[in-house]
Amino acid sequence: MRYGVIGTGAIGGYYGARLAQSGQEVHFLLHSDYEHVCRFGLRVRSPQGDVHLAHPLVYREASAMPPCDVVLVGLKTNNNHLLARLLPPLLHEHTLVLLIQNGIGVEEDVQRMFPTARLAAGLAFICSAKTEPGVIHHQFYGSLNIGNYSCPDEALITRLLDELHAAGVEAKTLPYEKARWRKAVWNMPFNGMTVALHCQTKDLMTNPHSRRLIREQMLEVCRAATALGVEGVDEAFAEKMMEMTDRMIPYSPSMRLDRDFRRPMEIDYLYTRPLRLAREAGQPMPRLEMLEAELRFIEERDLA
Amino acid sequence: MRYGVIGTGAIGGYYGARLAQSGQEVHFLLHSDYEHVCRFGLRVRSPQGDVHLAHPLVYREASAMPPCDVVLVGLKTNNNHLLARLLPPLLHEHTLVLLIQNGIGVEEDVQRMFPTARLAAGLAFICSAKTEPGVIHHQFYGSLNIGNYSCPDEALITRLLDELHAAGVEAKTLPYEKARWRKAVWNMPFNGMTVALHCQTKDLMTNPHSRRLIREQMLEVCRAATALGVEGVDEAFAEKMMEMTDRMIPYSPSMRLDRDFRRPMEIDYLYTRPLRLAREAGQPMPRLEMLEAELRFIEERDLA
Q1: Phi, psi at A279, each rounded to 5°
Q2: Which pLDDT tens digit goes with each residue over B117-153?
Q3: What is the pLDDT of residue A141?
Q4: Does position A46 have pLDDT exceeding 90, yes or no?
Q5: B183 an active-site residue?
Q6: Alpha carbon A86 to its chain's center
Q7: Could you tell me which of B11, B13, B41, B43 has the C-alpha nearest to residue B28?
Q8: What does the domain layout of chain A look like in residue ranges?
Q9: Do A212 and B293 count as a contact with CB atoms less than 8 A apart?
């Protein structure tokens, strides 16, 4: 199919490059890296095999891009307001927009901007970072859970899965809410805590006090999701996330990187939104509310 | 009366110096500052009037000190095991030991070491710090709440109050549990949060997110105290503590100073102990449990 990538960074760049390498037609929207990628191409360094696209289809302006069958959105959610301008040129009547972003409530807001667009959530279990212009350093994992939000064309989703598999990407579908909330079980503790304690995942897992706290925070997410009627986000899943994180090398989640580079943190969709839903469902998440307050404090201190 | 001071620092030094200045006989146990105080005396710089004791009664060894009527203990609670050696020389049959220390459970443990000793809690509402050898910088407040733990001689407590008043120290008695838990309402949020967010009280009060969090943490303490049967530790009191803190200049509580100077933090009595009591009473304090975990993580990171 024809793919478009909005936000050619650690996430959008990785999946787009894998698809392009496997022979798909992939159109990349670039911003600061445009000149560099024009000259040197787009690289992925990965334990699963490096990729070098010498002459990718790159654009500086979305308006120059063609309508696509699937658009991968890899923007930070803080920039989703830009989609009002960036997305329309890439849409045809049946385009699937895959929002490969963290947090809760993303599709709801994008759907409000584009009431007839066909949306799905992409939950990337991947450790990846853009380390220099045009170079994405993929560290490990890489699977993609897809949660269909508003696409009536199941065949399109199936075809997307097939093409991802052919590109060497593990991918599967999950019910939309389950996909988003399962990801939140990992994201909500680790993204914020690595910022609050200025550390990496491994540090939190090896200290017994922070380890217990991380598990309690995971269980807060599970209880909230269950209260919201989401199935399969339970203690057993939290335990799986603990074990998976134990097996990871020391890792800095995206929010920690955002903080280190003094980029805005994705507090709204990662914390504020799910915390509000949990409160409304009568199942507040006090430790994660505290974490949100700490993150807001840390971010706003810079502005003071 | 004859007073002894164990722990001649920001707290013990302040109250001891005020009592000595007013004419009481005060014996000070000193450690690292002994030589300095012998030569230059003991100073308090205070908006309520400076004190300079040119020739205070100072000791390097507790064994050289006389039995006293009242012993003010100003040690950090982390050092209370030292009382086994330091306290006996100062005790006669009727000595009152005033533990001017933060936290919950202090008297219980000291009583176990000295089953017949007469103990009271001293809760200092004071902003004070030892800024250089032999010099205590008193910033503001200074009142002392006294909670009788195991002294059958009420007249002795009354006399202590009289002599404190004569020394210019605001002091009053409160029921023991109420005195300790009221102090915890302020201590538990501010001591830890100024460490976790590396800030001062004013920063926490002016940012709306941390301000809300501080209030929620105060209410956690109030609910736990109420569940434990302690009266008068309620929302109205928490509100008073918020207002008092609003009126304070930017302040670094003792735990923040301990952390800055890489001294051990008083996590056990300030957090672990009250958190356990609250859980046992069926009224856990989740935000303060999280704060304890953060503090343990911060402290143990140094040792790793």
Answers
A1: -60, -45
A2: 999 999 999 989 888 999 999 988 899 999 999 999 9
A3: 87
A4: yes
A5: yes
A6: 18
A7: B13
A8: 2-174, 178-303
A9: yes
The answer to whether B42 touches B53, Cβ cutoff 8 Å, is yes
Q: How far is B83 from chain A (nearest CA, A)?
A: 29
A139-165 residue pLDDT tens: 888 999 999 999 999 999 999 999 999
Token reading at A238: 């939290």
Instruction: Kindly state the tokens that stand for B141.
Output: 């407040």
Q: Pick the residue with more confidence: B130 or B286?
A: B286
Per-residue model confidence (pLDDT) at position B299:
96
pLDDT digits (tens, 9 = 90+) for A205-227: 999 999 999 999 999 999 999 99
For residue A125, give how far its alpha carbon lies from the nearest alpha carbon of chain B (Å): 26
Any idea what the Cα angle at residue B157 is, between residues B156 and B162, rounded to 5°? Answer: 95
Top residue of B220, B272, B287, B294 to mutate, by most chain A CBs within 10 Å, is: B294
A213 and B286 within 8 Å at the Cβ level: the answer is: no
Is A287 close to B290, i.e. CB distance below 8 A? yes
If you average pLDDT over every residue of chain B, what do you get?
A: 97
Evaluate if residue B304 carries a pLDDT over 80: no
What predicted TM-score, i.e. pTM, was given to this entire model?
A: 0.94
ipTM exceeding the 0.90 mark: yes
Reference A1, options A85, A74, A70, A96; nearest CA is A70
Q: How distant is the Cα of A74 from the closest Cα of chain B, in angstroms? A: 29
Question: Per CATH, which fold does A178-303 belong to?
Answer: N-(1-d-carboxylethyl)-l-norvaline Dehydrogenase; domain 2 (1.10.1040)
Alpha helix positions (H), A148-232: 154-166, 176-196, 201-206, 208-227
Q: Report whether pLDDT(A304) > 80.
A: no
Contact B297 A210 (CB under 8 A): yes
CA B48/CA A246 separation, integer angstroms: 56
Closest CA to A73 of A55, A57, A91: A91
What is the second-level CATH architecture of the domain B2-174?
3-Layer(aba) Sandwich (3.40)
pLDDT score at B303: 79
Q: Using an 8 Å CB-CB cutoff, list chain B residues near A197.
A: 294, 297-298
Measured in residues, chain A has a length of 304
Nearest to A197 among B209, B287, B294 (CB): B294
A118-132 and A135-148: which strand pairing? Answer: antiparallel
Token digits of residue B95: 């000595």
What's the pLDDT tens digit per position in B218-269? Answer: 999 999 999 999 999 999 999 999 999 999 889 999 999 999 999 999 999 9
B212 to chain A: which residues are within 8 Å by CB? 293
Closest residue in A to B285 (Cα) is A286
Long-range contacts of A291-294 (CB under 8 A, 24+ apart): A291/A188, A291/A189, A291/A192, A291/A193, A291/A196, A291/A217, A291/B290, A292/A192, A292/A267, A292/B209, A293/B209, A293/B210, A293/B212, A293/B213, A294/A192, A294/A196, A294/B196, A294/B197, A294/B210, A294/B213
